[in-house]
Amino acid sequence: MSNREVATLAGGCFWCLEAVYDMLKGVESVESGYMGGQVKNPNYRQVCTGTTGHAEVVRVTYDPQVIGFKDLLDVFFTIHDPTTLNRQGADVGTQYRSAIFFHSPEQEAVAKQTIADLNASKVWNNPIVTEVVPQEQFYVAEDYHQEYFENNPMQPYCMAVVAPKVAKARKYFLDKLKK
């Protein structure tokens, strides 16, 4: 595990992001959790109130020799709507905001350039509202949130919301999927 890097991303429900990033070559682990709030050791119920300031995030540990940070962002901006402030579909609240919590000046620069390029190319009808902010304390979510889609594929939310995002990622990033 010598040359590993970490990316922390918030794009709505962490179950969706985790399910997609788990499929990518070069991604070694994905943990669902919380970042960006003012309450220490928050739990899911607290974060869901929207009052702790935390976002649902995934912490992605990856091998940059296999997959780059820019590749992770390309997937990120494909599987969620970065133009809706504090909302992803029916999930509404600051905990569902779009955010990139950078771990280095390089990640910050790549994130800002990616957003500028996407805005300039008018990929989205509205401007991207994704926050690009320094990473903070990461709090791992409760055990039942880890590998949620893998363990609960027939759960209604997973069928309606997570599965279509996984399918979209498979369609657009086939060459980046683990065998």
Describe what you observe in this structure.
It contains six helices and eight strands. A hairpin with a 2-residue loop joins β4 and β5. The chain is of the alpha+beta class and 179 residues long. The mean pLDDT is 96. It has a single domain, classed as 2-Layer Sandwich (Peptide Methionine Sulfoxide Reductase, Chain A), CATH 3.30.1060.10. The protein is globular and about 35 Å long. The strands form two sheets. It has a six-stranded mixed sheet with strand order 7-6-1-3-2-8, with helices on one face. α1 crosses α3.
Short description:
This protein is of the alpha+beta class and 179 residues long. 34% of the residues lie in helices and 22% in strands. The protein is globular.
Features:
single chain; 179 residues; alpha+beta; Peptide Methionine Sulfoxide Reductase, Chain A; six-stranded mixed beta sheet; two-stranded antiparallel ribbon; 22% strand
> Taking strands numbered 1, 2, ... along the chain, how are they ordered across the largest sheet?
7-6-1-3-2-8
Which residues form runs of ≥5 with pLDDT under 50? none
User: Can you tell me the CATH superfamily?
Assistant: Peptide methionine sulphoxide reductase MsrA
Number of helices: 6
Overall geometry = globular
- N-C termini distance: 21 Å
User: Helix coverage percent of residues?
Assistant: 25-40%
Q: What is the name of the CATH topology?
A: Peptide Methionine Sulfoxide Reductase, Chain A
User: So what's the oligomer here?
Assistant: single chain
